[in-house]
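Lab notebook page, bench 4
Experiment: in silico fold of construct C2
Operator: M.H.
Input chain length: 107 residues
Purpose: comparison with the prior construct
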Amino acid sequence: MAVIENVTLAYIAMSIGVINVCLMMGLLNSYLKTYNEIKSGFTIGLIYFTSLILIQNIFTTLYLAIQVIVPAPELLISEIHEPIKPLLFINMIQLVALIVLYRITRK
């Protein structure tokens, strides 16, 4: 039962991660357009920040995808298969933060 729960949580976390990646790509696109118009140092900082968070989200989502593709055996729950719940919560918090940032950026 715990394996099924972890797989379900992994799918949810992975889905939220994909949404986060899409939001980050939208933000990056917006910041690049702004930089082409304004050319400010602050916008360059936003581009770097967004790029790094985008890379982090891609790696996290890929990690979760690997957990779904290669599940741990029922008898052997290794350390690599345990962080699904924390990653789910991290992705959920990032999703809320990115939605707020995206809405502010689009205005």
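Observations: The chain is about 85% helix and 0% strand. The radius of gyration is 17 Å.
Next step: discuss at group meeting.
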